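Shipment paperwork, digital attachment
Item: protein structure file
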Amino acid sequence: IVAQCRSVIDAEGGIDLDYIALVDAGTFEILAGTQSVPVGEGAAAPTILSDGSREGRLLVAAKVGTTRLIDNMEVPLRDTSGPSGRLAERSGELA
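Attachment content:
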């Protein structure tokens, strides 16, 4: 998710990206991020809902000209790693 978001922003041009982070919507635990975002080490595996989904938030900070923009949006997450309950995206930096 983070890498795809970065690709879209980079393709636009004229945007100076500060950071992108994918976080747990309830705890704000960082699940993945660009190089400027430290990803937690040794954190407990996330709780996956019975339908296999989890609510995340995508956080973005960037400059367009002289204006710094900070925004976030809800991102539904799905467990893609099998019965262990860990998210594939949780592997660390994706940028």
